[in-house]
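Limitations
The structure tokens in this dataset are predictions for the assembled complex, not deposited experimental models. Users should treat interface geometry with appropriate caution, especially where small molecules or nucleic acid strands are included. An illustrative entry is reproduced here so readers can see what is and is not provided.
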Amino acid sequence: MTLDTVDNATRTPDVELPWAELGLKKDEYERVVEILGRRPTGAELAMYSVMWSEHCSYKSSKVHLRQFGEKAPRSDALLVGIGENAGVVDVGQGYAVTFKVESHNHPSYVEPYQGAATGVGGIVRDIIAMGARPVAVVDPLRFGAADHPDTKRVLPGVVAGIGGYGNCLGLPNIGGEVVFDACYQGNPLVNAGAIGVMRHEDIHLAKASGAGNKVILYGARTGGDGIGGASILASETFDDAKPSKRPAVQVGDPFQEKLLIECTLEAFAEKLVVGIQDLGAAGLSCATSELASNGSGGMHVVLDDVPLRDSTLSPEEILMSESQERMCAVVEPEKVERFLAICEKWDVIATVIGEVTDGDRLEIYWHGEKIVDVDPRTVAHDGPVYERPYARPDWQDALQADDANKLPRPAGGDQLRDQVLRLVGSPNQASKAWITSQYDHLVQGNTVLAQPQDSGMIRIDEESGLGVALATDGNGRYAKLDPYHGAQLALAEAYRNVATTGARPLAVSDCLNFGSPEDPAVMWQFAEAVRGLADACQELGTPVTGGNVSLYNQTGEAAIHPTPVVAVLGVIDDVARRTPVAFQEEGQLLYLLGDTREEFGGSAWSQVVHDHLGGLPPQVDLERERLLAEILIAASRDGMADSAHDLSDGGLVQAVTESALLGGKGARLVVPDGLDAFTFLFSESAGRALVAVPRSEELRFTDMCGARGLPATRIGVVDGREEDGAVVEVQGEFSLPLTELRTAHETTIPAVLA
Amino acid sequence: MTSRIGVVTFPGSLDDRDTQRAIRLAGAEPVALWHKDKDLKQVDAVVLPGGFSYGDYLRAGAISRFSPVMETIIAEAKSGLPVLGICNGFQVLTEAHLLPGAMLGNNHLHFICRDQKLRVENSATAWTADFAAGQEIHIPLKNMDGRYVADARTLDMLEAEGRVVFRYVAGADEEAGAVPGVGHNPNGSLRDIAGITNETGSVVGLMPHPEHAVESLVGNGRTDGLPFFTSILKRLVSA
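Predicted assembly:
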């Protein structure tokens, strides 16, 4: 077997390389040849092919994503913006918070447990690479129809994988979503988010500076997992006799990751690290090229020094391996010994594999021969950029014309009652406790709120009570009807959820899940969603700090609903002031904030009762969202609200049901003037919340709403305890015992999945 | 001078800092102990915290039991050092034979995290004196391998000698339906046993996590777990 060295590549310009099998297009390969001035070596081709992949280069989405920067609102809170491992936000008192959401969709369909587990592992390493201690994770999940046989394979595996990995890391799982829709049948969405906390001065970036500084690879040994592409190189070009069947999905070891967290944080605390990068997609190819291209010099790497799990791996495979639980640090020579000692303390393997040079080339050696000699920027940053054609699909008009407001509505109290039970017991609206009870939400001892609260909340300072809140939301049905406003509604809901718990929304991360960018209709959905999100972030004053794009979520011609998932991070000065969802005390007054209109397009009601998707999603009024948020935060801070719940999918009746069941207390409701009972209960108008106000605070609360111009309608009272037979009653329409609501709400998911 | 209570950190320990916080809130001084270090730093008692030490590889607690720090703890416990094992710590104690029986995977095969109602069956141990016998308390539970098993003779002996310290009882979450399909016994433990003690009452192990029931704002929002730590503190101060 001949080693394909740089010299060899220069001498043999006519050797055909399997660039197409590695996913490169002809013009992309020609561009590589042009950059290098010769054909690439096998190792160089491996690096370019993974780094220029859609996943790593964002080549289809980049031209649209620029808007997040161009339209970014002025914000003093943003310490590190888009482009780093994760954005960093100032939350006051010297603390900085980093957070991000990523997708692990495709691996989780192939191998649900490991796919979901390594999704958690990857996002957590992004957080530690910024210098932060991870303090919580969240998991927005979407599956096919709840009663589809394959959902029973995918969902329990995904949930067990998230739990198995996250629980073992000691990270509380505080939020997320679980949504079922047939459009996700062959393409479940497994998004994973994480939050980390650090002091301002501890922020670390992925860059390799200072000639002579050492490059240290630490964590797990490198194995043959996740390198389907490289084995094509190895087997077809260089050595036909070599076994090439490698598992494409990586296998996670949360124990190793826990050690990696502790030893990395200890190294940070002793200020031993100049730059750091985690190894995720594209493994060492990514880490070395990104560290080198973000720093001031070049890099010299000896691949023979990489600790291997499998000694037969070729250099191309080592460069492409996506073995989990690995990090790469740049350390000054005099601090190397101490860094290695910390790794040894935590039984973490650490090896110096190279050093920063004063040149501008990334040079990689194998058995003493140079096999890579590239400008790292061309690998990491100069990937192709596509202006993919996009066009509004011809079916969009018909879809929007199929007005959900014209669907037959329940006639009379009995039908209303029946549809309420069906709604709160439908898979999307039912309790997800069967799932969330498999996650540890308590570890670290700082969880103030966790699912099913409107947002998760973590205390970050025990003395002052400073805390952060995070909510993630997305509604693919709304986005299918109107991607521009659908994306804005996702942001509005997450923003509202954060404010409902009493926290002030500060910044945004997103995970944009779409079908194939090669389909102009999908590309239009993507372009519209990004434009909508960027416009709304600008208007709400919440910058996008980073995120992730997942394309090709499609089976054959059928793409998923466009599904932008938006995460909003908020800050609360004292977590003791937080507002929970559950009704607290009998006699408290229920207020509906905002305007309720006849808006049923994309609603849960239209799905559950009519299996319908058509019309327009609810109107977006961001100025109203901002006002509502200010009122909710003030009510929380000044003790005017004892519980609050945002109104979104399922409308008011869903919110009342959840608040009642969580608190074990009933409610008596009166349909306000100007509304019919059906619209009152099921409308999904945005910009609304349900608030329970102590009688002593009523005047202060209504005065505040009146002065600020926010409609506040008294709709009822918290009444009765579940053990005494409490009911949710809508006067003149129906009465439903809490026990009956509870059975409907809580037995669906276990019945489908257990 | 207050009492010093050690908290061991094994690789993969997760609730070690939380346990230190609980000890501090109870008024004692938490002392971090490292698994590779045989030195117990002159602590007056030791807590083995929850987590997945050594990733629960081989068997929960099976590798930790052989760590250097455990060598000293096993020897000292046999001569009266009070030891509390929480969750993974309980698993380590059974693997170390400081407590009888063993832990298997939950009978429903899922990780479970919920608030759990317990009855205090023995309020005479070093770690439960601040409870009343028969008192019912709510302590969060979170585990994968929490099913306590032992042979019938051992179970009869534990019952006869009053060494069952906590039992799972109906109430709290399973009534509220938060974990559908799982009854009052969250893992299939024999005779609803949640925690046990040794012959002298100095070593106690339980699956639920008292360190997550010490503040009204976090954990399960109750302080039912504090008496574990005040009990040992009083014992040490009066000794």
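Some entries come with short summary sentences. For this one: Chain A has a mean pLDDT of 93.
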